[in-house]
Amino acid sequence: MLLWSLSTLVNYKGTLGALLSDGYAEVTGETKCFELWVLVDADKHEWSKHISISLPPLWKNIVTEDRLYFVGVTGTDEIVLSPRYLSEPYSFYVYYYNNESNTIRRIEIQGMDAFRHCKIRLSLNHVEDVKLLQYI
């Protein structure tokens, strides 16, 4: 497997994985499928195509005009995608795709108007200790 800058490295069930989309870095409503590759043997640089994901027909209706990028994989094996910029009228959605049930969830994050001209990057499993802020 050729790992290139268009793939996104993820933690898939405790193993290094890479998500690829039709040879592009972005995923759109026109995207039909993407692939999840898993590292089998690091010493031999051996990868295995774990899943070839065919997106359901509803995908196009849910994503509409957004250009999405892979964020990662959750602990429940959902693939997370998000745009890098807010879409008009300044709404921001995060998409969760579950390959086992072939379902998509779109979650709106409100209050993002202040970031309409900024590039947005999400990260999974980030935790802040808010208690420390009380003592500053």
From TrEMBL:
The alphabetical list of record keywords is: Signal
- How far does the signal peptide extend, from start to end residue? 1-17
* Positions of the F-box associated beta-propeller type domain: 5-127
Check the record and name the Pfam families matching this protein: FBA_3 (PF08268)
Name this polypeptide is given: BnaAnng32830D protein
Q: What is the lineage of its organism?
A: Eukaryota, Viridiplantae, Streptophyta, Embryophyta, Tracheophyta
